[in-house]
Amino acid sequence: xxxxxxxxxxxxQPGKPAQNARIESLNAQLRNRLLNIHGFAxxxxxxxxxxxxxxxxxxxxxxxxxxxxxEQ
Length: 72
Fold this sequence. Notes:
It is built from two helices and no strands.
């Protein structure tokens, strides 16, 4: 994997995941495992859950009292 002997990169054609089946398989397995760990039904639900977590638990903002998160 990586650079061939002449140093040129080779990319798969858009819409042709079969040209790189190993990586596509790995991506699918990782996506399924990571989504299943947290009990999300799909990628959109996972993104929404992450955003809510960041806003409520991680990011103090000016509109919160004394610049604290709602949890504090």
